[in-house]
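Please check what follows.
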Amino acid sequence: MAFREASRMPLMPGKYQDKHVLLVEDTRFFSVAIKDRLEIQFGVKVTHCASLAAVRSLLETSSDIYALAILDLCQPDASNGETVELVLSHNVQTIVFSANSSASRKAELLSLNIADFVAKSSVHAIDNLAFAVERCLHQSQAQVLIIDPHDDCTIATPLREANYFPLIVRSLDDAAFLLDRSRNIEMVLVHADPAAASNCDLISVLQNRYGDSTLRVVGFSDVIGNEDVARFLGRGGDDFIHLPISSADLAGRLNHVMSIHKQIQALQRMASRDYLTDLLNRRYFFDRGPKIVDVCLRQDMPVSMALMDIDHFKRLNDSYGHEVGDIVLKTLSKRLRAIVGEKQHLVARLGGEEFGILFSGLDIQQAYEFCNRIRTEIAKVRIVVDDEELSVTVSMGLAAISGSEDFDNYLNAADQYLYLAKHSGRNQVFSDYQVARIMAG
């Protein structure tokens, strides 16, 4: 099995642009409202059908592209839920969205292993449906890592039946190897013999290394030991599962844990954003940055720190006012995020007109060239204010990170190069790479 060679980053934000959703609904109001809501909120592509015949024709040629189907129970040519059975027969994860919400009918549908049932008659029907869709899409992307030293991993089978995708390792070292290289692992299941005190230590290691908001940790065992289970949960474990367990019960327990995880991530996203520019903020940069550096150093992956400052920003504020200064900050930040992205590298507004970028996976020459690209692209941006066209330039300092130090030391090194860039005429990048070339020349 191949694993992506990339440092572990938080999932930001929760979009699913590569996902296709099948919507089967013959009521115009719901079909339009749901399609618009899902495409705008999640970025998915929604294909709409209004009859069983249309669904059958579609699935015969393209059933494998759909991550999820949303089905009304009744269509003009299918009044008894035939569409549900057809879609499930093509192994498409299914949410039923129906006005028939009787307990018996709901139980019957859930027994068919549909992903969820949402009552159409609720005043919050579309909101509830959107929540169910996000949970299913998120679950389809998330992988579960199992740490189990035994040859027969008994929880793997019900986990697969619950539509999770487990990776199984024998030790914490093997787990760290995968966690360092995968962005999709959000839950770790630990075979936690209640008699083993090391299980609690393992929770601390996972949380310290990857952050307690990045991973959920669930213990499982076929040994009953309530006091030790309480200790496991008290040290930060999110749940404990006694085996054997049915796939339906396991799905319910893990879905609940993942639902809480998503709420924590949503709150973290709100707390980690700069209010003006919507870039990540200083607090998040200082929280995640050291963890990313640690991962890169363990993998022997190149990592470097850049500081960027807007040239003559005080003069701009004095000449045009802070309102125009805010417009410049927002416009520049939008362009910066478009260039750098938020998957491989970490970019944040550190305060005022200063920005930090942590480059992972680029050697110092590549990072230097990337910084020069940022500098030149930002210089091209034109901002129109009261019929006047403004532009700004930036100076950047870049320092390679070669060993484990205090995070502030990396920033200080980049800041020294930023100082050189400022005092050498601005609108340029100074770095280890450039200085080495100057000395060699």
